[in-house]
Amino acid sequence: MAQPTVKRAWWKESSVYQIYPASFKDSNGDGVGDIPGIISKLDYIKALGIDIIWCCPIYKSPQIDMGYDISDYKDIHAPYGTVADVEKLIEGCHSRGMKFLMDLVVNHTSDQHKWFQEAKSSKDSPYRDWYIWKKPKYDAEGKRQPPNNWGAVWGGSAWEYDEASDEYYLHIFAPEQPDLNWEHPPVRDAVHDIMRFWLDKGADGFRLDVINFISKVPGLPDAPITRKDQVYQPGDKYFACGPRLHEYLLQLGNILKQYNAFSVGEMPSVQDPKEILNAVAYDRGELNMIFNFEIVDMDIGKEGKFSRRPWTMPKLKGIVDKWQNFMIDNDGWNSLYLENHDQSRCVSRWGSDLPEFRTLAAKMFATFLVLQSGTVFVYQGQEIGMINIPISRPVTEYKDLETLNAWKELLERYPNDKERQRITHEEIQLKSRDNARTPMQWNTSKYAGFSTAEPWQRENESYHDINAESQIGVKGSVFQYWASILALRKSHKDIFIYGNFKLLDVDHEDVFAYTRTFEGKTVIIVTNFRKRPVKWSLPQKITIQQDQVLVSNYDGVSVADETASLRPFEAFAAFVN
Ligand code: NOJ
C-alpha cells in the first residue's frame, strides 16, 4: 500500500551529533575544551556518518550554568575561542558536507547581560520591561514574600528580590538566569536579530533551549500545591506552552524558513502530543521537531530528579508507541535521543555498565533508537559507549549546580538521615548531568587524551577501556556499530525514515520489538533489554532467515520454531517474509 502522507525532507533524514564544548577536545592545554579542538575532530565526526553538528552554548557567559547563561549573544566565551574560530568551524563543517547548529538560549539571559544590568539599574530604564518584575506580596504577619509560589527548577523560589526597586524578578532557573519578557516586542526583535546574525555567518539552524517556556500565562497565578511538604511548587502549568507560544514560534519559523534552516526545540513539562503537534506539524511553519522528555523522565520520582522510581518496560513501550504513531499519523516529526548534556549515559542508566555487558548494551540501545521514525541525535561519547561516573566519586566532586543544589538541600533537610543520603547519592550517580559532562575519552593517555592539563571536570576512570582510538575502524567496536547502523538507516530510507511503525508484543517485560513497513516491505527490530538470555516468540506469520539480517550485535541470530533465543542485550534487525 502506498503511504500517501509521506513528506520527504532533508532534516528528517539527517543524523545529528551533539557537542558539549567544555568537554570535547582541548587544543591549548588549559583543561577546557575549545573550538579549535572541535575543528580538529571534524573528520572523526564525519566518519561516524553525521550530517549535522549541534554545539551547546559557546557564547560569552559567566558560566553559572555552563553557558546557558549568556551575557553577550554575539561574542564567544574566551576559553572556547573567538567569533573567527566559529566561522572556521562552520567552514570546516560545510567543506565536509555537514551542517552546524547553534544553541539558542532565549527564555532567559545571564544577569550579567547588559540588558539585565540596564533593567536592574532603574525602574525607568528602557530595558526594565525586557524582564519580568513584580511587587512583593505580604503574608498575615506582614512578612515580605515572592509574588507567587513558583519554585525555581534548581530549588528555592523562582523570584529574586531586588532591594533597590523593591520588586522581584522572575527566574525559572538560577537567580543568575533572569527570564526575558517575550510580551515586550523589542525582546522578540532582539531574538530575531541574534538568529539572523548567526544564520548570516553560515550557521544552519538552532537547537532552542526550553523554548516552550517563553510565553507565560498572564497574571502568573499561584501553582497548584503538588509537593505538600514544600513551600515552592512547580509552576510549569503556567509557564510551559503559554497562550502566545505559537505566535512567537511562527515568527521564529518565518526566519528559519528564509534560510532553509534546521530547528529542534527543547520542550520539557509537556506530554500531550496534540500540544506538540501545534509546533511541529509539517505545514505549521514553526519548528521541525522538538525534544520531549517522556523517556528521560520515566525514572524520576515524585520528589524530583534524584528521587527513586524504577523504570518499567510497559511504560517505555507506551511512550515510544504513542509518539511514533502519533507523529506518523499526523504529519508531525520526532527527534530520537537517549542522551544529551542533561542526561546520564544510557548504558549505565537503563542497561548495564558491567565490563562484560556494556559493549552489547551500547549497541542494543543504538539499534532500539536509530531504526525508529525520527531524526537521530547522538551525544558525544555515546558512539563509543561511554558510561556513568563510578559510585566511588563523592558528590562533593560533582560540578553541576543542579546536583550540588539538590545535595545541599537534602543535607539541610535531613542532616542525620544517612539512609536517605545513601539512596540520593545512588540516584545522583545514576542520573546526574555530570555523567555526560566528563571529558570525551579519546585515548589511553593521561586525561583520556582530552587535554594535556588537568581537565575542569575529572575524567571518567573508564577511559583505559572505553576510548575512541581503540574503536575507530575496529570491527565489533561500538563506534563501528553506530557508523553501520546510521548508514543502514540511510540506505533504507523509505523503511527507516518514512515507514510505518508497529509495536510488537506490548506486554512482554524484557523484549522491545517493533516493525517498520513501507510499501509492503517490512523490517523487524528486536532488542533484549536484559543482561540474561530471554526466549521470545515471534509474532505469527513472521519468519527470519539468516540472510535477511541487516544488523546484529552478535554473530547472526538464533531463531528456531518461531522462537528467538536472545542472548544478553541482543539486538538485531531483519527483513521479514
Ligand atoms: C535546558 C538546558 O539543556 C540545560 O542544560 C540548562 O541548564 C537549562 N535549559 C537552562 O537553560
UniProtKB/TrEMBL annotation:
Keywords: Glycosidase, Hydrolase, Maltose metabolism. GO terms for biological process: maltose catabolic process; sucrose catabolic process. Transmembrane segments: none annotated. Residues 18-437 form the Glycosyl hydrolase family 13 catalytic domain. InterPro entries: GH, GH13_cat_dom, Glyco_hydro_b, Malt_amylase-like_C, O16G_dom_2. SMART domains: Aamy. Belongs to the glycosyl hydrolase 13 family. This is Alpha-glucosidase. The lineage of its organism: Eukaryota, Fungi, Dikarya, Ascomycota, Pezizomycotina.
